[in-house]
Each structure stands twice: as structure tokens, then as C-alpha cells.
Amino acid sequence: MTSRTTQTVVRFSAPFRLPDFDMLQPAGDYRVDHDEEAVEGASWLAWRRVGAFFHLPAIGMRGPTQQMVPINPADLDAALEKDNQT
User: Can you tell which superkingdom this protein's organism belongs to (predicted)?
Assistant: First the structure.
């Protein structure tokens, strides 16, 4: 099965927390990796998301460690929507 990882950057304008995060995260730009696999048998090229990982700390911030935390993409979408409303 063919798979790929794409990376995007999301921006939070206010501190936020995602489920399963221990601490409130500061506003900033964050890298997100999306793991996808090709949908086989389709007559066109299609991809299905099978995982997503959030990079900590934010781009340009220093921290004692770099982490990739698995996240639910729906939780990320909800947090970004909430951030856009404030």
C-alpha cells in the first residue's frame, strides 16, 4: 500500500489546549504531519488520513525537548475554529 506524509503549519493566535495535552500551549505557529495512505481500487487517486502528529514546541520557540504528539485531526480543527472566533 502506498503511503505519504504531508506537513502543514497551523497558527494559533491565543494559548490553547488540545485533548491529551498536559499543558496549555502558547500562541504561535506549529508543524503538523498528516500520514495518509492511498485508497486502492479507486479509478482516481485518493488518500485517506490514517494519523496526525503535532510538533512541540512551536516553530521558533526553544524547549528542552522536541516532541511529536499524536492528535485527532477533528480535535485540531475544533481548536483552530475556537481560536479563529476569539
Answer: Bacteria
